[in-house]
Amino acid sequence: MLNRIDEYINFAFQSEIIKKTMFFLCLILIFIMIYGFNRHTPLIVDDFAMKNVALENDFWGILGALYNYYFTWGGRIIVHAIAYFFLSMDDRSIFNIVNTFCYIALNFLILFHGFGKMVFSSFALVMLNLMLFLFTPVFGQDFLWLDGAANYLWGIVIVLTFFIPYRLQLAKTENIFKHEKLALLPILIFGIIAAWTNENLSLALVFMIFVSVLVSKKYSKHIYLWQIVGGIGAVIGAAFLILAPGNFNRMAVEAGGQHVDIVKNFFDINGLYVDPHFLLYPIFFTILLAVISFNNQDKFGINDGRVYLVYLAGVFVSMYAMLGSPYYTDRAKLGSLVLTVILTVYFYGRIKFNTVKQRKVLLVIGIFLTFLLHEEWHIASGDIKAYDRIEEARVAQIVKERSTNNDIVIEDNNPHSRYVGAFGLERISHDKNSIWNRVYAKFYKAASVRIR
Fold first, then answer.
1. 260 phi, psi to nearest 5 deg
2. What is the pLDDT of residue 171?
3. Sign of torsion over alpha carbons 241, 242, 246, 250
4. Which DSSP string do the residues of 25-55 spell out, in sequence order?
5. How far apart are CA 165 and CA 175, in angstroms?
6. What confidence tens digit (pLDDT) does each residue in 408-438 have?
7. Is residue 405 part of a domain?
């Protein structure tokens, strides 16, 4: 009986059909799960303000709003344009579907950058999703809140998509572009767009390009023109983003003026490496897998190309880039986490599970991780739906009373966990004259709204 079980396990590990079937089954379940989260996430804070602008303006008016934003508040033109695009639609229904596909695209990008090719590993898929669930400090803000997802989820997807050629080149001795000249203009433009997403990830991309070029030079003895042109594009995009006049204006006016404390920021960032709700366990798992993988193989070959150095540089730069910021918001930490998860997948991919004992251990761990992922999904789903139910009741009350009541008093809607898009964000308050109360009331065509 035991021998028969061993044969089944070996067959499952060796059969491409079984591996791909399990992978796509897991992927479909993850898609359904994330779509459910999106479907039960309403508009939140900035969404209302931006949607009011989108409803009041045509295409040129929205361009004007982006221009004004660039010179008064911040430099993220690319991701804000994405948010405006979806907010110009009647409701979130299309965004819910497209945003779910964007999350799935992030899954594929993490796997590709980790393995260096598309590997249909259901274990790695479950592992990376569990890490995103457990260690994204504000999951709902980064993946579900419309404006937040456009800034962070879509931002990291754009960056990792742009970086695909650099990842491919790390494993090649010859130029991956057979007609290099045709690729120069597209990669220049794409580099500008990719680095013009969000600040710490932008600087991380520039340094990742630099390190990848050095690694390619060492192993393939070549630096190709497209690598330099893409890097120039990234530098231009980063400059447009970071040097935007709005960034400096925002620092001058927000909260009565802000200052940068580099020393305090340095120690705060160092503390994130041992934060059990952020990087502590991902780093531990990555180091553990790295040690096992180094003992498992004699040395790195050309197909490895010291890939881990590129993403390791990205992790450090994405974090210490925030030394120059007045504060380090939790949602801005997603890029660092994703790059760490890529490292985890990379070292996992270097381990060879050749014996039946090793495969049994992997199978048991995989089942355990799947159980944990299901439990987290259950918690997240309950919290997200609870918030949505209260929001639906509030909107129904406003629609019912707005024609007869100039002072609508509604129940508070306090999110229970970081899985809810509104968690950690400002909410409407007791003061009907506060900015978010006025934005909320304007969107629902009410005179005023406040909480009880």
1. -105, 120
2. 82
3. positive
4. HHHHHHHHHHHHHHHT----THHHHHHHHHH
5. 10
6. 899 999 998 999 999 999 888 999 999 999 9
7. yes
Q: Tens digit of pLDDT for each residue in 294-316?
A: 776 544 444 455 789 999 999 99
User: What does the chain come to in residues?
Assistant: 452
409 membership: H or E segment, kind and range? strand 408-410
Check: CB of residue 413 under 8 Å from CB of residue 394.
yes
With b meaning 16 or more CB within 10 Å and e meaning fewer, what string describes 18-28? ebeebbeebbe
Task: Tell me, yes or no, whether 423 and 299 share the same domain.
Answer: no
318-332, 337-351, 385-399: range with lowest mean pLDDT: 318-332
Shared-domain flag, residues 356 and 396: no
Does residue 373 sit within a domain? no
- Which of 364, 399, 434 represents a domain boundary (last residue)? 364
Residues 415 and 445 in one domain: yes
Q: Are residues 191 and 113 in the same domain?
A: yes
Per the structure block, which two tokens stand in for 83? 């948010």
Domain limit, last residue, from 319, 334, 364: 364
Q: Which residue has the tokens 């952020």?
A: 278
Residue 237 token pair: 């995009």
| 3-state secondary structure (DSSP) of residue 16 | helix
Angle among Cα 283, 38, 32 to the nearest 5 degrees reads: 80
Q: pLDDT per residue over 150-159, tens digit each? A: 999 999 999 9
Q: Residue 278 and residue 167: Cα distance in Å, rounded?
A: 26
Amino acid of residue 147? D
Could you tell me which residues come within 8 angstroms of residue 363 by beta carbon, excluding any fewer than 6 positions away? 9
Mean pLDDT across 13-33: 88
For residue 396, give its domain range.
382-451
Closest C-alpha to 128, from 144, 106, 148: 106
Which tokens belong to 428?
Answer: 């409407």
Q: Quickly list DSSP for 129-142.
A: HHHHHHH-TTHHHH
Provide the token pair at 33.
């799960």
Reduced to 3 states (helix: H, G, I; strand: E, B; else coil), residue 343 is helix
Helix crossing, 307-320 with 334-349: angle to 10°? Answer: 160
Secondary structure of 92-126 as H, E, C letters? CHHHHHHHHHHHHHHHHHHHHHHHCCCCCCHHHHH
Task: Between 251 and 52, name the one with better pLDDT.
Answer: 52
For 47-59, how does the pLDDT look when each residue is reduced to its tens digit (9 = 90+)? 999 999 998 989 8
* pLDDT of 96: 97
Residue 136 covered by a domain: yes
Residue pair 305/172 in contact by the 8 Å Cβ criterion: no
Task: Tell me the whole-structure pTM to 2 decimals.
Answer: 0.93
> What pLDDT does 109 receive?
98
371 belongs to a structural domain: no
Distances (CA, A) of 64 to 58, 68, 84, 230, 369: 10, 6, 12, 29, 48
